Amino acid sequence: MSSVSTDPPLDRRRWIALAVVLTASFMDLVDVTIVNIAMPSISKDLGASFSVLQWITEGYALAFAAGLITGGRLGDIFGRRRIFLLGMSGFTVASMLCGVAADPHLLVASRILQGGTAALMVPQVLAIVHSTFPAHERGKVFGMFGAIVGLGAVSGPILGALLTEWNLFGLEWRPIFLVNLPVGIAGLILGRRFISESRSTDALKLDLVGVALATLGIVMFLYPLTQGRELGWPLWGWLSMAGSAVVLALFVRYERHKKAKDGSPLVELSLFSVKSFAGGIGVQLAFGIVCGIFFLCWTLYMQLGLGWSALRAGLTGIPFSLAVSVAAGMSVQKLVPRFGRKVLQGGALVMAAGVLAYIWEAGHYGADIQPWQMALPLVVMGAGMGLIVAPLTEAVIAEVPREHSGSASGLINTTQQLGNAIGLGLVSVVFFGVLDEGAVAKGQAATAFADAYRHAMWWVAGLLGVVLALMFALPRRPKEAPAGSEAPAVESAESAGEPIAA
């Protein structure tokens, strides 16, 4: 009995509370992956341009990335239950707005709102788990959380494909968002009753100026990058991208001032003096860009280029998702403890091999390529990704001082999402920038999209080379001291962002 005397009192309602927060995580994960598969249907129904399609995913990722750390701090200060319910309420309303949007720009605005409210909801999940469950039960709970992450990544595209194909009540793609309404309402009712309130006793202050500067700098870079091709690359776009560097430099300067003033900057800049962390952040950013480019281009290639249905495209991705799950489990349990960072480097090489195989197949088979022919490169790519995503965060945070582990985890998750947003923005250059729209208009979409897809995949292969090079900054072997394992996840809600594999 004495071994658990310092843990929170056991509450029989804790398992219902767990079901609520895990459902919220599942909603967010599915909402990230479910949208890509419905892109062609959205484009056809709303007349959305290619750049608007990018913003439907990029707007969510950008708002989520910008709000993650602040969302965690809000939970620490004002109460995790309160901020979680606020985020879930906003996410449910935003989902409804997405589902009823009659204009592509309204859909983009609703997606940005959805990402911002998810940034309030998601960071509270693991912090609520810590405050609700005693230490001896957390291992089981975190295992369940990992299973939900995997299930969300696998089921999102399939669920999106089914809801789009079924065309429920003639709503076409809209049920992919409207399905969140009953789930969100039930979660709010149960959450208010069964989740206990908790907050940090020494919570840091908010850094709203830092959030504003960082967000402004990122948007100044991403907006012209995404819109530039359709607008003919105007001068103001180049000036905006150049100005983003100035704004981000001001952000760094302000963060130093904030640190000296009250010790609560948005980003703990001293973390970058740790070689493994600085290199690892580079890995996270580059890998996020890889995922942002690949997943959107892949969906567009299969549906708009090859003319496949949403269901066929969704089922084609199953081998990839299963390979990610299997390889991720093996990497953490068996491979990394024995071979260290070589596992992550091997994952980058394996994934690059799968990309090169996919490039060859797309060119060799052309418009006649079949899902079973895609299976081998997808399995190889998925295996490589699984070897990277599961152990990467621990490797990045391994040499970070324990007192900064929460800030480091929050920054890692933010960087993952930011990389994804940048990758989505680059799609306008690496995919749409080389797409022969004249050939598409002449009925040669398969050839045109295949050529653009292969070009984008060469970018993916090159970025994986960058990932491999940056991995040399990671520690050679995992360390025994769990500097960032449980501490960041439970001491600060900032650390609860989802893996980039989603």
From TrEMBL:
Listed Low complexity bias regions: 481-502
PROSITE patterns named among the record's database cross-references: MFS
Coiled coil spans: none
UniProt keyword Transport present: yes
Organism placement in taxonomy: Bacteria, Bacillati, Actinomycetota, Actinomycetes, Kitasatosporales
UniProt subcellular location: Cell membrane
Alphabetical keyword list: Antibiotic resistance, Cell membrane, Membrane, Transmembrane, Transmembrane helix, Transport
Record's bilayer topology term: Multi-pass membrane protein
Region (Disordered): 480-502
Membrane-traversing stretches: 15-39, 83-102, 108-129, 141-163, 175-191, 203-223, 235-255, 276-301, 313-331, 343-360, 372-397, 418-435, 455-474
Domain Major facilitator superfamily (MFS) profile: 17-479
Entry-linked InterPro entries: EmrB-like (IPR004638), MFS (IPR011701), MFS_dom (IPR020846), MFS_trans_sf (IPR036259)
Record's protein name: MFS transporter
Principal subcellular localisation of the protein: membrane
